[in-house]
Amino acid sequence: MTTILPGQTIGIIGGGQLGRMMALSAKEAGFRIAVLDPAEDSPTGQVADVKIIAPYDDEEALNRLAEVSDVITFEFENIDYEGLKRLTEKAYVPQGAEIIRITQDRIAEKAAIRDAGAPVAPYVEAQTFAELQERIGEVGFPCVVKTARGGYDGKGQVILKEESELAGAEELFAHSACVAEKFIPFQMEISVIIQRGTNGESRCLPVQENIHKNHILHETIVPARVSDATAEAAITAAGQIADHLDLIGTLAVEMFVLEDGSILINELAPRPHNSGHYSIEACTISQFGQHIRAICGWPLRTPELHRPAVMVNLLGQHVAPVLDAIPVQPDWSIHLYGKAEAKHNRKMGHVTILAEDNEDTLRRIEESGIWR
Fold it and tell me: EC (predicted)?
């Protein structure tokens, strides 16, 4: 088992906010950071020791990253699978490339979840719109049709309430094959972030409750307002999936909670996740610190919650009013990601608030008027 020590260099593919927070955690321990990203002034690049400015699939740039890094990780999943696979042959990439191949494609991802023994909504896959027309009866209406590749934050999907709306899904096939899932009403969305080391041991952050607005994560509430049985089922399912995928590093498992308290797995993300940002202040180890330990071959720590917490995302329209609120909000931990332009609905940062009563925190967030 390879152990990477402070003073050595961690290479990160992707220069966004997840890479930035990984890098900051790593630098606390004394690691050096190299980043590959097309942007000159990426969030990760601002805190890195080595910047390689090139597209993610640039073979020469990947070779340069391999030369300067003792271990390589990634901060998002939409990277070139073939390039990453070649990189694993010349550099130490403990997470491997296979998990990227699986999570880039909803068809492969759903098959992996099912094969792990975790619950998913009934679904069919279709390579063409004609095949969808033939198979849609297997799931019925209402249903959700999603592109197998490339969708995020609600993009690349359409809800069909009845058969007369089926034509609305045809344009999705211009991008890729699709899956159609039976629409099952749910009470809430939760996630489990599981992290697994090179020795096979795993740890989970507390179960998180997630509230979305316009398909973008708005708030994460910890602990999730679910029963002990639901929380246990969620953690068990995450463990089954992590073991099946032979995970090293981090996996965020997003789930639906149904009226009876049972769960269905929605999707996977093979890296630190927006819903785990609260862990920087609220837990005995953050998702970023644990990720660094996992890929570097260090023993994992058991995350424990210091106090209940609410994390709320800062989109472009929220930045100015949050900055104005700093003098009157001593309990707010504010994180800005170093992005140059505060565009509407662009993730610019987050705020974490620790308190004994999350219901009071949620009320105070609403009363601030910033996120209306």
Answer: 6.3.4.18
